[in-house]
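Quick one: structure for this chain?
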Amino acid sequence: MNTPAVVTTPNPVQTARVLLKDLQEKFAVFRDYQPLAIGIDKQLIALSPELNRKTLRIALGMHTNSLRYLKGMEKATHRFDLEGNSTDEVTEVHRTHATETLRERFKKNAEQRKAQRAAEAAQEAAEKAARQHAEKLSQLTAKFSRNRG
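Got it. Here's what it folds into:
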C-alpha cells in the first residue's frame, strides 16, 4: 500500500534564522550587530529580489531585538548600510527605546528567576513534609506492630 508523501512547509521562524545566519556571513553590519540603516530591508531586496519579504521581516526583527543589537543601540551614534558606511544618526528616541526594551527584558527575566526559585523552594518544602509524614507513619507502624507481637 502506498502512503501519500507528506509535504511540509518550512517553519517561517526557522527559515528566518537561516536567512539571518546568511546575512551575518555576508555583511559585517549584521555580524558586528551595528545599528542598521533605516530602510536596509529595501537594500537587501534590491540585492536579492527573490527574498521573501515576510521571512526578511522576521529575520530583521530577530536581529534588531537581540540583546547584542539593543546594547549596541544604547550607545550608538550612527547607523550603517550594507557596505558599512555611516548613514543617519541614531536618534535619542531610538537609544531610549533600546534602553527601555533592555530594562524591561532584564526585569522580566529577574521576575521569572524569582518565580522559579519560589517554585523550587515550595517543591522542596512539599517533599520535606512528605518525607516527615512517611517517617512518622513508619514510626507509628513500627510502634504498634511491636506491641501486637
